[in-house]
Amino acid sequence: MSQLDLLNTNDETEKYMVGSVDAIFFESPETFYKVVQVKIAQANFNWDEKEIVATGSFADINEGIEYRFVGKLVTHPRYGQQFQVFNYQNEMPSSKAGLITYLSSDAFVGIGEKSAAKIVEILGMDAIEQIIADEKKVKKLGLSQKQQATLIENLKANNGTQQIIIELNGFGFGSQMASSIYNRYREKTIEVIHEDPYKLAREIPGIGFKRADQIAEKIGLAADTPQRIKAGLLQGIYDICQEKGDTYTNAEQLLNQTMVLLSNSRRVQLSPDLLADQLLELANDGIVVAEENRIYLRKYYESEWRIAERIKEIKETKIKIDSGFENEFAQLIEKVEEQLGIKYGIDQIKAIKEALQSKIYLLTGGPGTGKTTIINGIVAIYAALKDISLDINEYKNEQFPILLAAPTGRASKRMNETTGLPASTIHRLLGLSSGDEDEREHNQLEGSLLIVDEMSMVDTGLFDTLMDAIPTNMQVIFVGDKDQLPSVGPGQVFADLLASPDLPKIELKAIYRQENESSVITLAHAIKNGTLPTDIKQGKSDRSFIECNAYQIENVVRQVVEKAKSKGFKTRDFQILAPMYRGPAGIDKLNEMLQEILNPHVTGKKQVEFNKLHFRIGDKVLHLVNSPENNIFNGDIGEIVGIVTAKESKDHQESLIIDFDDNEVEFKRKDWIKIRLAYCISIHKAQGSEFKMVILPMVQQYTRMLNRNLLYTAVTRAKDFLILLGEPAAYMSSVKQVAINRETTLVKRLTAVFSPSEGNNDSKAEESVSEKREDYVTNTILTVDLINSGKIDPMIGMGEITPASF
Ligand SMILES: Nc1ncnc2c1ncn2[C@@H]1O[C@H](COP(=O)(O)OP(=O)(O)OP(=O)(O)O)[C@@H](O)[C@H]1O
């Protein structure tokens, strides 16, 4: 048999080798992936040479140290045969010399060969085990304090990290995921997994319930263990709230959802009673909150109460209004009107005046109603009244006293452009990093006036954090368009605030955009009122309608785009918006086609492949998550301006350089998951952005997704031109479908804190949130009693599920 036959990659039998690491060829800075050369001392496979290249996930591996590697031989298309390591262990140095080499290696900075020799001489060959078992042993080795500390620290840490990575590998996590998990829990990793493997599903992006459940099974958690059922219930509430945008659910919905989740994951049917019992325990422990027939994750329950209480505190803190305000205001408004060359309407003046006199003020209005013009007026008059300079250069080391913020990068950039003042995203303002909107750690805001735009996009978690950061004496103005889509995350904060009778507000109705009577704005207002103009299909100077079916969409979009291009529109000037990703008229299909016509592959030019997609220089791409550390946010659109191949890069990792409005950010391959092509994007992702021309395909195929707020949001993204395509019936069904109101209790909480005497059972304004929790248990018992007594059938809705579904 030839050596090549022996090295057949299909040979899956487990191989091992013992050897020392000669050289580390490559190490990824972000993951534990490394390519090393191993000098073989012993192996259970044929290998003619002294060395072999090994690849794998090594937490901490040192040159000159002997390890036992378990894995298989593979053939790399470019580099030939290699040993792919599944797991490895530090073969404790078997000889005295080996142990000395190990203790004097790079892993123990400050310990040289002499000191290492002394350690081995005094403690013997089991020196490491002895020190790990009893730290005091290092005291008699004649080492300096620093050396003693290094020795203990590194022996413990190295031992730990290696073991952890080996165990994570054993659970089937690849190097990337293993490092994400390790980075989150550090030395507690294995403890966390053994204590609650489901924590991974809740806390590590990319790990779902099913994956966590597999681990749970591996460590011996039976399908009916309370821990598993509780995890399923928590996941159930979380999933329902994320999917529907509600801040709570009910027992029936929750039990159905959890039953499906648990049964699908392990294919075992559980009794509804088991689930109901565990739900009761979760409530008794205060992990979920049941109130009447509502079941909340504690965090949303508390967020709504906290928001309401904070709003009241801020609203009720007095602001000083000078006796001469009326006169001064009348003069200042005239001055601003002169500067802007406009005359404010009655409602606009009312808005500016009330906003200036209120601690908290809400301002809503559709496109063109003058929200930005009002913000400019408020800022100018506020600055004049308070004698504040609006020249940002005068605030070198000081905080600018007027804070402007919006939920997305693009919206805050627009705010900055329209006001000429600094504006930032809410995340930046709060100093939050990726994914920690709900964290309670954040900056405290400084300044005297805060204006937040695009409020409809702010969800309960972020708003709770924002309210916590606002000092009680700050004046706050929330601006938005209540008819746009609600936030992606749970809640409908802006709509709820507006629905509260206790907060001063104004809804602007008059449209001021004059230029040539924009028919896009007329259309937007018609949609908002639940109708379509009779001339919807007639061509106008700024909008047109092309009738076609789902299968013709791709071709029609192609023609429209080619026409726009020939008329001199740049790729960034027009945006295709669609409601769905899948299907012949879906975002994915359209992006594929649009990339081919707008940025085709040119032989010899660089392109990289990722998840069956190609990325090329010049591609328009969308960022899918918030990344405040790079100042890029969910929904930001950028352009690929560079591709760095593995060969060209110092760390041998390929990357894309993406330009987001002059902010160039490097994306390593592991981060490509955060971007996608943006020739066509979803309407949700377009919220907070505006485009010169919007091309909007709508077909009946999308029916499930269509509603009035969605169509309204899409149409209002168009600044100059709107091209509607598709089936008129799809547009009609959109306007008829009023977006179902989200289930939230913020309005209820606001009423409770503002009017505690209104006989409302929930009016606990006098109590703190923790005191309110006292009532959870009684309420939960009621709910679960209902289930047990058969008044709520937890199997309702499961009629369509057959054993085959599981
Ligand atoms: N009182 C007014 N008199 C004349 N023009 C006005 C008046 N108010 C606003 N405008 C003009 O109407 C247009 C729309 O106003 P503005 O941009 O403030 O509205 P908006 O509500 O912020 O709209 P959008 O949400 O579409 O940006 C602008 O060109 C603005 O200059």
Pick out its properties.
single chain, 806 residues, alpha/beta, OB fold (Dihydrolipoamide Acetyltransferase, E2P), Arc Repressor Mutant, subunit A, Rossmann fold, 4 domains, six-stranded parallel beta sheet, five-stranded mixed beta barrel, 29 helices, disordered N terminus, disordered C terminus, binds adenosine-5'-triphosphate
Describe the structure.
The longest helix is centred in the N-terminal third of the chain and has 26 residues, at 145-170. α13 (298-316) packs across α19 and α13 (298-316) packs across α27. The protein is built from 29 helices and 25 strands. The two termini are 48 Å apart. The strands form six sheets. The chain has a six-stranded parallel beta sheet, sandwiched between helices. A five-stranded mixed β-barrel has the order 1-2-3-5-4. Strands 14-25-24-15-23 form a five-stranded parallel beta sheet. 40% of the residues lie in helices and 19% in strands. The protein has four domains: 16-171, OB fold (Dihydrolipoamide Acetyltransferase, E2P) (Beta Barrel), CATH 2.40.50; 205-291, Arc Repressor Mutant, subunit A (Orthogonal Bundle), CATH 1.10.10; 305-434 and 444-508, P-loop containing nucleotide triphosphate hydrolases (Rossmann fold, 3-Layer(aba) Sandwich); 519-736, 3-Layer(aba) Sandwich (Rossmann fold), CATH 3.40.50.300. Bound molecules: adenosine-5'-triphosphate. Adenosine-5'-triphosphate (ATP) binds next to α16.
